[in-house]
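Changelog-adjacent note: as of this version, every example in the card shows the full chain rather than a window. The one below runs 398 residues end to end.
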Amino acid sequence: MTHPLQNKSIVLGVTGSIACYKAADLASKLVQAGALVDVIMTESATRFVTPLTFHSITHRPVVTDLFNPQTGTVEHIEMARRADIIVVAPATANTIAKLAHGFADDALAATVLATTAPVLLCPAMDGNMYANAATQDNIERLKARGFTFAGPASGHLASGMTGAGRLVETSEITGWIRLALGRKGDLAGRKVVVSAGGTQEAIDPVRYITNRSSGKMGYAIADAARDRGANAVLVAAPTALPDPTGIRVARVQNVREMQAALTAECKDADAIIMAAAVSDWRPATKAAQKVKKGAAATWSIDLVKNPDVIAGLEGSRLIKVGFAAETEDLEEHAREKIASKGLHFIVANDITAHDAGFAVDDNRVTIIDRDGGAEHLELMSKYEVGLRILDRVAALLK
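Full-length structure tokens:
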């Protein structure tokens, strides 16, 4: 699979914060994703981490001086020109102040001043420094110019205090990078709603009816939609997955909550991709207290049918994509759902496969359209399946 950061030119600015060591991890993750990473370090940053660290990770020269006789005095102009994005992580209060007021007295500030690429700043500093009115004014000034900020996070700081000022985690920074790079994608300006996870229907305050869905497929589709510029909204039943960066998440528990959330979100949406595994049935009544085992050898629960969520979703331009998780007669059962649910196409997968489907990162699916055509996709990552689904959505939206 081609990673969304493959061959992207990323300039990583590293400034003088104790959080510099996290920048090394970020550089490593970007290189592993296939990005071309050029590191610029301020003089203060070199007191925490050596340039050799980043050179060993990126296998590219590390810029530390605006006037480097080996790279030439216009190296920062070339880096600014070829950058797809500039990321400053960590970004100190001093560097944020420099950028806010247009200073260009070091290689990093000069590169940011010279670029037309998006700039992502990831603050890391003492909590009082971050809260200071001067820092807040500088941040607002940069936001008004189109700079994006990731964080800071709250927690224990190097000063010993607790508060806002921690550098956000590497996974969150890469999410913000993907969001920024995708803003001009083929789904820019489109709202794509994705459902994910397995719904839970309560029996009593302790027990519920659910299924084996991990939510990974829906989350991967939402990631792919964000990476292609869409305004991605994720309506998620309970999962163990963290909220994806740059995607609004609406949390629901049962089918009726999911129906209400999707009905509201789809009023102005361009597409709904129903990857959630919704419960077909729910208990007719929910016990107010935990049902005790007692002496009974059996326990019967009356079930009533849940509404067909995607069949009831409407919109003047809404592209509807369904999923069919089957154990037998895969294509036959999937085709039946296209008409009954009003779908543009359906994604069918055999959930008995040990290497695809529930709780794993890969899937093997068949995409069936309204006209009866079927495309069989061999085993691939769920993210790549998401891209293939979105290829069809994008074509239909045209």
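Structural remarks: The mean pLDDT is 90.
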